[in-house]
Amino acid sequence: xxxxxxxxxxxxxxxxxxxxxxxxxxxxxxxxxxxxxxxxxxxxxxxxxxxxxxxxxxxxxxxxxxxxxxxxxxxxxxxxxxxxxxxxxxxxxxxxxxxxxxxxxxxxxxxxxxxxxxxxxxxxxxxxxxxxxxxxxxxxxxxxxxxxxxxxxxxxxxxxxxxxxxxxxxxxxxxxxxxxxxxxxxxxxxxxxxxxxxxxxxxxxxxxxxxxxxxxxxxxxxxxxxxxxxxxxxxxxxxxxxxxxxxxxxxxxxxxxxxxxxxxxxxxxxxxxxxxxxxxxxxxxxxxxxxxxxxxxxxxxxxxxxxxxxxxxxxxxxxxxxxxxxxxxxxxxxxxxxxxxxxxxxxxxxxxxxxxxxxxxxxxxxxxxxxxxxxxxxxxxxxxxxxxxxxxxxxxxxxxxxxxxxxxxxxxxxxxxxxxxxxxxxxxxxxxxxxxxxxxxxxxxx
Length: 446
Description:
Elements lengths: L1 H12 L13 H45 L3 H16 L33 H13 L4 E5 L6 E3 L10 E6 L25 E3 L8 H4 L10 E8 L2 H5 L9 E6 L5 H10 L5 E4 L20 E5 L4 H7 L7 E5 L19 E5 L4 H4 L11 E5 L8 H5 L6 E7 L11 H4 L5 E7 L5 H10 L4 E3 L1
Parallel strand pairs: 3-4, 4-5, 5-6, 6-7, 7-8, 8-9, 9-10, 10-11, 11-12, 12-13, 13-14
Antiparallel strand pairs: 1-2, 1-3
């Protein structure tokens, strides 16, 4: 390892290229290179974003000069300026040098490189270690077996197939107080087929751990909602070629650089869930990198100003508010979102104030309501849902299981729902029978 680090220092001092493959490198050096490549990608994105407004101002100045020269009949000068503007528009950042060929030590047997559009095979031992971590934390995984394209969910080690398989996802789970101190991050570079990753560990995410995400070219969903992260850790994220769903956990620090980094690391991100409050001025606007959002989840206070800003996002059609502790909220707070398809209200102390307005929503496909822990829900509050028109309704009694038979009469009046799912409840079999009899056309799951 010492010799490898010495050679790496020489390589950097001479500005030589990094190898295209880290196959022959020791584990310590692989981690360092992952960090380097991730930081370099982030710098390139920042460079382009910084240069863009400067180029725009320069082009505007050249355009004014071109018009002035044209008016004064200096056609040669105007043509020269136009040529400069055209070259500015087509100017590109210098392409990085082509990666050097992979060089193996003489004692190693040369192996053919995989085509650029293919991903190296998973290491079975690493995949098993990650699966064992998931089972130990009461999570499931999805795998793909030979001859099958559809992922199969596995909930315990005994159900793993005897033949070869690839790890497709490590599924997110609820907060687990018995989670291990650390997730086995060092195994991630050995399972490049992974597409979804849900992680929970007691210690905050470090930059060294986050750098391992660079080795997952297929990753499109990342969930660290149940753990703490830091700004340096987020800076160590790669620039994802595609990220469909990002869930970030607890964060203690300045929010502005976090929101900026999310836009840089996840271009065209459609779904974002944040487990920390975001001031209204830092929420994405229609011209921001995060204007691609279709679904956003925010934690903490929700204000009319926040709602008004979010509805300006052109693609946004889903909103979730979590852990809003205000004692009272305007009854019409969410009405600007009445064209949305998905509304989720979780652990909101003043949730009952918002329920009547849901009947005015025009295109609801899914409504999720989770009660606040320790708070009793009066049956009369659910009666305001009688006019709700939502294809699906999920009602969660929370940790206190604040749903019981006393709510059956009110739920029986919710005729505009095709599917109803009740979670964390104390409803008896008799209450279930009453509800199903009252709503014969509704698919009810308890």
